[in-house]
Protein 1
Amino acid sequence: MIYHDVAGRTGLLEILSWARPHDSAIERAFCREYLDRVPGMTADAFGNRMIAIGDQPHVMWSCHVDTVAARGGQQDVGIDQLGIAGLCNGKAGMSLGADDGAGVWIMLNMIAAGRPGLYLFHRGEEQGCLGSRWIQRHTPDLLKDIDAAIAFDRAGSGDVITHQSYGRTCSDAFAISLASALNGLNPGFRYRPDDTGVYTDTNEYAGLIPECTNLSVGYQGQHGPRETLDVDHCEKLLAAMLRLDASLLVIERDPSKQEDDRWGWHDHYYGHRDDFADAIAEYPLLAAQMLEECGLTLDDFRMAIWAEEMGGDADYRPLMAS
């Protein structure tokens, strides 16, 4: 079995050329071609892929394999003279998929370099963190030795996320230590702690793992046809990750306790959400058009309404590994 070489810009652009909605044939083909060929890669009953490098690793690296797209298939990707990648012929229902193709590319190259850690390639993040939620509910022992979970799934180029929908998911001390380490490895970096995270797979592990964060990888405008990726930043981040000494990161947060400061974040977020809802109520047709351009269908929206009405009784159907 041939292991795909995804080194360099060619490998990154190759990954971005696959539009892969969750549970689509193209997503399953991508996992077979790029993940299952990696020696030592395994799959759980949901189809999450994982591999451990090193003796009892204490850091988990996280990304997700699905992208926001109305249809799966191959897409044309280009890169301009400034090193910014984007779709060549982007249309409604399409996205570049740097969210989270960039994370997939970084992690595959870290694996190829033999960097220690537990690597988790989650399925269904764009549908509500289905893969990580499945692990959290069904196989939490997988994470029993993990002190820090770092996702490569944040827009921009400078955020180390401290808060997500759970509330605080990593300590300021950890975020500062990670930001400082990265900035020390590349003087052009401007990483810093950021408390405006929303939701990615590491959020699901905040009650199990002390430090759960999300790291900016260089994309912007995710989930739509105008999504871009700063390839130069992504390459520099990979170079830094290949040199990072994760043993020096500060582990401080107690996952069994939710800190009171989550409520300040909660009020700020929901105040912003109320303003957003007011704007949508005033311009509903524009909001519907933008949702369609991001690849959201009416059935998706109705399913979200059902899940909201069901509350804690709503559950997800486990998917078998392909």
Protein 2
Amino acid sequence: MSFGRMEARRDSLSTCASRSVIVSGRAMFTYGWARRLAGLLASGLLCVSASSGLVAQEYASDATVGIESKLGETIPLDLTFNEEDGDSVTLRSLVKRPTVFVLVYFRCPGICSPLMHEVAATVDKMKLTPGIDYDLITVSFDARETPQLARMAKENLLGEMKRKVPPDAWRFLTGDETNIAKLADAFGYRFKRDKEDFAHPATVMFVSKDGKIVRYLPGLNILPKHMEMAIQDAAEGRARSFMQKIQRLCYAYDPEGKTYIVKVNRIILAVSLVTLSLFIGYLFAFGKKKSDPNSNLETTTEEETGIADGD
């Protein structure tokens, strides 16, 4: 088992000229377990060794650029956009399961391309399957961009991925200013035109199949485990596996920092309960063995048999 070191991460917020810094704690771990009890105890001990990280966000001095959290609110699913082939489509027809939203513009000379490649790289590393466990939707917030440009961006990105993502599992949409503004406002996604480019944040957003906003993950360095947990949070009513339950025990979502943080108090409590249970079980088994009359009877019989044989 391994635990990645905590490190600072940098997130750009730009017209592609100016930047702001987001610092976040990272924790990456892998699990190896043979029994449920051993897995719980080992995972708890690993999580205790991690320090919790909070995201300190310093957006640009322009308050019109950044993220205003809208957790728990619902995006308007009747908004209409254009698919890569030019067909008009509503979000309601696309959001059928947990969905990952990424707002960018395809001509962006700065952080949009690194953000999209980071999402693609994270999808490559996750165990969850796009098109089955979740979908992805990339929306251009530049109303001047066309479906043809969206198609080219999609072909280039999906063509570079290791995992074969079904075209219907990751849509690239364009739209008019009205629908773009309504969607961005629903997410609390604030961007601003700067000449021919835009100042905007780099954030991935997660919604449930009903369009409810459940998570934000900011930055250009997305941990696969964090993205998996965000998708699991968006999957309302889905039964979690045993290891997913352990992850929920170890981590909790921090809505202010927009990241997952280690809950040390939960881990200490869990490890204490497991240790206490093992100790009580040992005492019970040891005490039962000492008080078992059949054990003494068998010992006495063996001694008597030995004496008789000696005679």
Protein 3
Amino acid sequence: MKRNISLIMIIIAAAALVFACNNKKDEASTSKTVSPASVEEKTIHIGVSQFVQHPALDAVYKGIVDGMTSLGYDNIEYDYQNSNADPNTAMQIASLFNSKKKDMVVGIATTNSQALKSGTHDIPVIYAAITDPVSAGLVESLDKGDPGITGTSYNNPFKEQIEFLTSFHDVKVLGQVYTGGEANALFQAKQVEKACAELGIKYIGTSIASSAEVKSATESIINRVDAIYVTNDNTVVSALGGLVDTAIAHKIPVLSADTSSAKDNPVFIAWGFDWYYIGQQTAVLMDKVLKGEKPEDMPTTVISDPSHMNMMLNKVVADEIGIEFPEEVLKQAKTVITE
């Protein structure tokens, strides 16, 4: 078992290295010192449109603001708007930013980034934390931006995350609740289904249209699965409490790709990228555009280095559902919740 778990971690690291070399989309460095002298000392008006309020997306926004401050900016006025998971509101926010002629607009999550691309004109658009910008129609290729738009993405190791859980818990059927009308969520659901097929695991997915349906959707599959996987699906994550409560009541482990939300919700395993860091990397792109670089000449910054992933294990949940973490698993976690 130790060899299996160690092998999984080695595979993840190797895969990330190959991905980075093949795609040549190295993460930008936030360590450089930037003088604001090259940016005109006037108030810079930046509109930020966030899909919904939950810890992961909030961390992206904080990373953006802190990142811009660390890059030397003290003259930015942020107009932060939250669409509350409503696509129509996202379009209204885009229209508002367009009428106010913002110097730059930032979309946190797919729906809002899509709205900014279609609803603003002659304003640079930066998307943040998008799983697959190409399938979302934001850019034609990760190798370069589209006219007026570029941003950040991440390469989530779906198969390795599932394989990690199966290394110490028997999973014959994996369940997933996902948002059926959101490109980012659909892409991830297909990746999870593909990973299950490769691992010989039966996949049961159920789609929702709003966060109000998360708990009932979970209840509809809970008696047919051995575990539930939660991707970075913003609608599902915003209602994570109902999902994990249902899972715990039925002694079913939940594996989540979002560590930020696991701080406030009793998730068995949370293993994913650092959203604050992704926000910082987004700030690097914003800085370059403000200094004159064209978004269409800038490739998507893809976060893929496993060192920017966090693992959180919840022993309280483990005891409650009757699953024990092996010692070699506990040693790999950045955070272990014991009370």
Protein 4
Amino acid sequence: MIERSKSITFKCLAPYEIVGIFSMGKIIFIMAGLIFALLFVGLSASQGMGGSKAYDQSGNNFMGTPVSSSNQVSTVIPDYLSPYSAGRPELDPYGAGVSAFNLLLEPADPANGGLVVGGGEKLANQLYLQRGKDLSTQGRVSLGEQYVLWARINGKGSFLLYDYNSQILNQGIVTPGWYRISGAYANYLGEHIYRFVSAGLASNNLSIMVDPGSYPTSFSLAGRVLDQSGQGMPGIKVTATNNEGGKFSTTTGPAGYYAIDVAAGVYLVNAEFPGYIFTQTSVQAITGVVSAARPVVGTPMGSAPPLIWPQQTV
């Protein structure tokens, strides 16, 4: 005698004479899968994943605004990156932009300037170095050179830019989009590592290596004196002074460069030459590395003020 199966069976697709035999366990499994799929589709649509906007493979939507991905999540910011860590006064997130390094952050679209973003994995918050028409996540500049950074910001929030563990820009509240950061300067020989934190997310590390270029590197502080056209001025007396009464002088060489051996600290740099007036600049001399002051610009007396390299401070 043949024992009947304890499974519950039913016929499906009868018009096509196809018979499907399913156990109750299989039916429950299929129904659970359908319910899970419907829930996932609804959740995705609510977060914009299933909407009408198109997203590219770089994690940007059709307007170029970055989109958070699974590998970019809110994390606890390390103390060395936190503006509220011990020993630091709390900052007003709605205050005006503050920078001791003459950095200026302003909304801008790199596409309008024909700039090309380099390849590789991109985070929601991304930082770039501009070299010519290229934006890259690492590069090289020369000592004493100005350069431009670009930030792509994911969400609304405060914007804090760091070079290693030093905060160099606090912009207050920013909205998502692209921003141009001008005024960056290769002020010492070695490597800069930039990173910004905005809306609770840290960007990539942007590594910029500074090479000597044409600057002398046998002394701790170097710089250059230029005329209005940007040409080096030879034979100019240069003096660096600090608040403790230290005063160091030298004379520029044939291409307008100078070098002085000074102790670490902040110095005011002046230049002198008969018939000329000069801008001033201040510089932070850093222990153990060659530091570079921003160029001092000379103008014949009675002429218009210089149009390049205006007075700068560290």
